[in-house]
């Protein structure tokens, strides 16, 4: 076994000769640990430890500008030597100590021992703060306003305006926003001018102060200040000023009155009498939502309330608006008069559903029944109920039920989940809590290839004329085929019988 021992000793000595110097004369630097903010704040105390590999090494710290850090404890930045425990005993370590950090200390420091070096990055920031910046401002509709935010810090902050997660840019092609930045005694001031104020301009605008440096990668800080802009405007009812409310007999129903406005409006509710006079409801009969932006009147559907109108008036110091609610008895939907297909894609078809007469019922959902026209037989009698036995059916949400109240007199739905380049026969019916309408007339539609969109009409295409067979048609029908097959079989049997008789003789 001596030869094995000699081999091990030889390998060890060779390893020490080749790699030993690197292992014994290297340096290691502890990583800089920051707090949650990811940087050292101005004025904080910070130490960075550099360790040598053996006790005979000389270690020194180098500033980002290339000069050596002196070992004078009285300095604001100094290096101090001490010994730390290591695998081969105690080895020297040099601690870089920064007593009161400044922004100018940012950079890449180097621990050096002969030809061996280790770099470490240090990020020092004086976080920006906003001064003399309002948190909420108010302006009248139609006017212009300039939002202002002032931020100071080191490095000098760059100011950016955001709204709803998107950066506001000073676009020369649009006169809506104008952005300007100036410097004053308080620091940098960002100005955002919004012209021709509309109600939609209300909301939260964010002034973002961004601090960054090119000396160290990922050395940056962002601080945000939110400014709420309120636009004074008179109450406005969305969805029109006329609404039907449906209820079954003796059912309690809420008449919810809500208008957009600033300041928040007050609400008054009335019942309209047959002679067009109005009776105001007592305030104790009206409840309000938690946000106080909706007034709710609860009534019972009966002979004294059905077919009656209720008036809601919303008022603030900018003006007033009124809305009427008509309480109707919930009835079963009537049959659809017309279904129009106006958009078709590879997996979806959009319908307009229309009634020619005034609509006196609510629509909560639409059933769509459909069957593939796989054989291309467009002459099938889909007007017969038996043709729909193997069809599929799905319930589709109404996209815009407000159209029931408009002059359009209908609803819009989108039927999804279809196969591309496929022909279908479809029919529709609407339903509510009372019942459902009869099925509409069947309609024919073909989906497009992928990424294609087309517009079609609701009329089913005419079936193509079947070609007349030509005189010289080489194709044979089933009767001809079986006749030839039968005659050939007789000939084969006859031949076999004749051959058997000859063999017997």
TrEMBL record:
Membrane topology recorded in Swiss-Prot or TrEMBL: Single-pass type I membrane protein
SMART domains from the UniProt entry: IG (SM00409), IGc2 (SM00408)
Keywords linked to the UniProt accession: Disulfide bond, Glycoprotein, Immunoglobulin domain, Membrane, Secreted, Signal, Transmembrane, Transmembrane helix
MF-aspect GO terms: cell adhesion molecule binding
Any one GO BP annotation for this protein: cell-cell adhesion
Residue ranges constituting the Ig-like domain according to the UniProt record: 31-121, 127-228
UniProt xrefs under Pfam families: ig, Ig_3
Subcellular localization(s) per the UniProt record: Membrane; Secreted
InterPro entries: Cell_adhesion_signaling, FN3_dom, FN3_sf, Ig-like_dom, Ig-like_dom_sf, Ig-like_fold, Ig_sub, Ig_sub2
Protein name, entry field: Hemolin
Taxonomic placement: Eukaryota, Metazoa, Ecdysozoa, Arthropoda, Hexapoda
């Amino acid at each position: 076994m001596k030869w094995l021992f000699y081999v091990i000793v030889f390998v060890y000595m060779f390893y020490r000769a080749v790699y030993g110097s690197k292992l014994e004369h290297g340096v290691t630097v502890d990583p800089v640990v920051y707090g949650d903010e990811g940087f050292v704040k101005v004025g904080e105390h910070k130490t960075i430890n550099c360790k040598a590999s053996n006790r005979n090494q000389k270690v020194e710290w180098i500033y980002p500008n290339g000069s050596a850090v002196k070992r004078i404890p009285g300095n604001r930045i100094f290096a101090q030597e001490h010994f730390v425990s290591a695998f081969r005993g105690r080895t020297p370590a040099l601690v870089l100590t920064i007593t009161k950090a400044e922004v100018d200390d940012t950079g890449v420091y180097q621990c050096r021992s002969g030809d061996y070096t280790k770099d470490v990055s240090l990020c020092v920031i004086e976080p920006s703060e906003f001064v003399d910046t309002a948190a909420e401002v108010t302006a009248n509709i139609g006017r212009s306003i300039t939002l202002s935010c002032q931020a100071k810090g080191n490095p000098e902050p760059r100011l950016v305006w955001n709204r709803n997660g998107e950066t506001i840019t000073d676009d020369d092609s649009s006169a809506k926003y104008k952005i300007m930045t100036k410097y004053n005694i308080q620091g940098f001031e960002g100005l955002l001018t919004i012209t021709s104020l509309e109600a939609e301009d209300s909301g939260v605008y964010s002034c973002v102060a961004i601090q960054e440096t090119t000396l160290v990668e990922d050395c940056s800080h962002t601080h945000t200040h939110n400014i709420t802009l309120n636009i004074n405007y008179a109450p406005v009812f969305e969805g029109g000023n006329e609404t039907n409310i449906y209820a079954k007999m003796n059912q309690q129903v809420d008449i919810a009155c809500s208008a957009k406005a600033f300041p928040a409006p007050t609400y008054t509710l009335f019942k309209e009498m047959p002679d067009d006079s109005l009776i105001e409801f007592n305030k104790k009969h009206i409840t309000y939502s938690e946000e106080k932006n909706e007034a709710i009147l609860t009534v019972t559907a009966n002979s004294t309330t059905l077919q009656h109108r209720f008036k809601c008036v919303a008022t603030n110091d900018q003006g007033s608006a009124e809305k009427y609610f008509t309480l109707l008895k919930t009835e079963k939907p009537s049959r659809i008069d017309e279904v129009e297909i106006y958009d078709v894609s590879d997996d979806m078809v959009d319908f307009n559903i229309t009634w020619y007469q005034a609509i006196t019922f609510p629509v909560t959902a639409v059933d769509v029944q459909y069957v593939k026209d796989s054989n291309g037989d467009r002459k099938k009698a889909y007007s017969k109920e038996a043709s729909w036995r193997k069809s599929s059916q799905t319930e589709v949400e109404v996209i815009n039920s407000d159209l029931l109240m408009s002059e359009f007199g209908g609803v819009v739905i989108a039927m999804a989940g279809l196969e591309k380049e496929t022909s279908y026969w479809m029919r529709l019916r609407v339903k509510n809590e009372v019942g459902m309408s009869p099925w509409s007339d069947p309609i024919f539609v073909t989906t497009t290839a992928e990424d294609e969109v087309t517009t079609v009409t609701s009329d089913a295409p005419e079936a193509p004329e079947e070609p007349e067979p030509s005189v010289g048609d080489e194709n044979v029908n089933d009767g001809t085929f079986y006749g030839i097959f039968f005659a050939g079989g007789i000939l084969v049997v006859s031949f076999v019988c004749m051959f058997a008789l000859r063999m017997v003789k």
